[in-house]
Write a structure and sequence with these properties.
Layout (H helix, E strand, L loop, with lengths): L16 E5 L12 E7 L2 E6 L2 H9 L3 E2 L10
Antiparallel strand pairs: 1-3, 1-4, 2-3
């Protein structure tokens, strides 16, 4: 376990993906923290660099992929 109590052996890529509805305002700096972006249905999906980036994006109204019914686009 790491100091954040996250077992690095159990992390999946989905845990680093956030989604925002297309044609809406994106969270600040999401493009800087994004490794890659893909579009699925009416959503833009962003693979972010780390959990801190995911937490910041969700505070700014992005939604974690694992909290949606969307398939992983990566």
């Amino acid at each position: 376990m790491t100091e954040q109590n996250v077992d690095p052996n159990r992390l999946t890529i989905e845990e680093f993906v956030v989604v925002v509805q297309k044609y809406t305002t994106h969270p600040d700096n999401i493009f800087k923290q994004s490794v890659i972006q893909r579009s699925v249905s009416n959503y833009n999906c962003f693979l972010l660099t780390d959990q801190a980036a995911v937490e910041q994006a969700t505070r700014d109204h992005a939604t974690r992929l694992i909290d949606t019914d969307l398939a992983n686009p990566f």
